[in-house]
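JOB MANIFEST
job_type = single_chain_structure
chain_count = 1
residues = 840
[input]
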Amino acid sequence: MKRTKIIIWLTLLFAGYSVSAFAGTVGILMGRVVEDGTNNPLPGANIILVGTKMGAAADSKGNFIIYNVPAGFYTVKVTMMGYSNQIIKNVQIIADHKTALNVEMLEVAIEGEEVVVTAERPLIQPDVTSSIHFISKDRINQLPVNSFAEVMELQPGVASGGHVRGGRATEVLYLVDGIPVQEAISGGAAANLPKGALEEITLQTGGFNAEYGNAMSGILNITTPTGGAKHKIWLRAEDDRIGGEESNKWRQYEAFASGPVYRNNVNYFLSSNLTLSDTRWWQDMRPVFGSPIKKGINFVSKLNFAFTPNIRLILQGLYSWSREYQYEYRWRYNLSGLPPIKKHSYRLSGVFTQMLTPKTFYTISLSRFRVQDRLGQGDPENIDPDQIFQYDLPWYYFITAGDMLYWQDSRQTNYYGKFNFTSQVFDVCELKFGAEGQYYDLANEIVKYEPKKTFWGRPIVDEPPYNFSSQYTYHPWQGALFFQTKIDNKIFVTNFGLRYDIFDPRAQRPVIEWIPVTGEDFESQIKDYVSAEPKTQLSPRIGISFPIREDNFFYFSFGHFFQIPLFDYLYTGLSTTHLKKGVKLLYGNPDLKPEHTKAYEFSYQHILSRNVVASVTYFKKEIFGLVDTKTFLASDSKAEDDGFSQFVNLPAANSSGVELTLEKRYSRLFSGKLSYTYMHAKGYSGNAEQGMNYFMWGFDVPNKEYYLSWDQRHTIASELFVGKPGNYGINFIWRWNSPRPYTFYPSRNALVPDLNVKIEPNNARMKNVSLLDLKMHYDFELPHNIGATIYLEYHNLFDRMNVLWIASDGRVGGELGDPSAYAIGRRARLGLKLEFGWRD
């Protein structure tokens, strides 16, 4: 009955609010058509996007505007009786933004003559009012990268691990064609995409508009291709087994196809890849598991129906599957005791768009997203906490026998709906308002036992293990209303928005009491439940941009941003189904408040020359209500290790910094980008389990701010391309960052500290990191109209031993000398791409 009410509520919500273009997938083409030499307007000139049914006619002032254009590259044809036809190639439409195209027509005596030119994207996007980075498919294909996550980490303000401007990695919202692909239980992106499916990537790191919610640090949106008027097919293979020991036995195969199904009314797009790898640890793992150690399949498909020039329907399917065996150096002599991991997700979505007038349209989008994660195999009922894995006594260095007592089956289904409305109310004012809703079907079962350990990783074998088992099924929902207006009067651009979010966890918070067991020992028990309250928030957002001079722009943005805690923090441990033995330590909290960020930024952009632009941006973020764990002790217990931990809203954090960027678009055989970020990231907690971990180690929880583990103070990212696109080229990527912090607190016996001082988190720094990658390619033509590209990639070209972590004793890799403390060494990959009918 409750589920039915939610569905009815969402239906009424969508029906009651007219609402922007399908968020993050379409843009606007606008401009003016004039006569060459006189600059007189040419009313009635026809503007057509070749291969589509989209177009417009110039008005009495020569102006035209085409709304709802899917992001990508187009050829635009402009015709006018008595004038030569203008063909403008490589016109880029950017999602959620305007592309300006001004055309000068030549008067001719003979009709039908054509003038062909190639468009240049402006160095500064004038309608941008906050930090956003656009990465086109051409640039992605040039780079030695293989995923959207790698592209993301090249952008200003992004530290390795996906931390945007000092935020936690879980504060980024991932979208594919404007629809979330979020892992709602544990965070991150729950789907991967083939490289051929990356038509455009946009990363918003500043203030984002009100139609985007449930994110505090960034929005990463991937736009997939839309099949064109001509068939396009290509195949790609890539392999790192090209000699020597510097190999992961990694290979990837990809196929791509797109084109028309029925004239220009229906077209399709398909892309799929298969990735096989034996990982960097193949010498240890192959004898145990065979090959491949890791396997993944990704598939994307899209059907685009253009029923009329004003009505369009897009159907899409996403599929991701992966399986891998784990590796931990401490388990290297007993790798079969580690549980394998399987991940599986698929999404079906549909987007319907109708243009009501040339300046007004609405969009309805629906999706169903299913995610399943499986860790371990066999029957979880057979897991016995008394059969804990065995160490090599008396040293306790390696685990020599037994299985890791960890099994998980996590399933989540997300039903998503959005109804958007956009109208150009006046020539200078665009109005958007809308609503969205999500309903979740969650089922998560975990059986997990861990031995009690010291801070230095030494197991305390005479203590009962901790029991982190949990089983839950819940159906939370969330909804939002938003209003956004953009005023662009050619002097300044103002974006103002309001977003109202509501979230209902639909669960009960446990009331936990301490029950005496023996003497000074107590046991925590759930005695009652209290219904968790729905949470709401109103988030205002504003952005302003304006030119200081013709070649200087300034923008400012400010906003409040709201994010629902991960569902594992809300629901874990509330059931006692698997409480067989061990110490029950961790409980979820369905009454957690949403996390909240207040952020602002200033940016100044300056065009240095026709092809070079520089920018400087200052940002500051204040984060409130971050999730951590708090430990509760019985008031009359004398045993300091009696207690339980629960997720609570406690820590605050803040970050600030400056981003400097210098970019040159392609000319004179090269292009490049150089960015430098200076940043501070401080807080009271580095992760959601910090309070619990300190309790287990017997330390006091830090009560003052410290530099977080991703406080990457100085970061440099640079790209350089030299060559001729479509012929040959070499692309370099160099990344450098200053040392990250770690906690130095040595112990000779791994039981007690060497010094009788209080632990201070992140009181030391590691070493700086430097990586140089490159990609060389050569394009040539084969018989039968087949285009070929052969390329060679080098990752970590100079084979630098970059440090990833240092143990608390100050040793890289700790007492075992764990090689995973160093980043992967030099790897080379050789690839071949064949494109069929490439000259058509």
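[summary]
Confidence is low (pLDDT under 50) at residues 1-23.
The longest strand covers residues 429-450.
exit_status = 0
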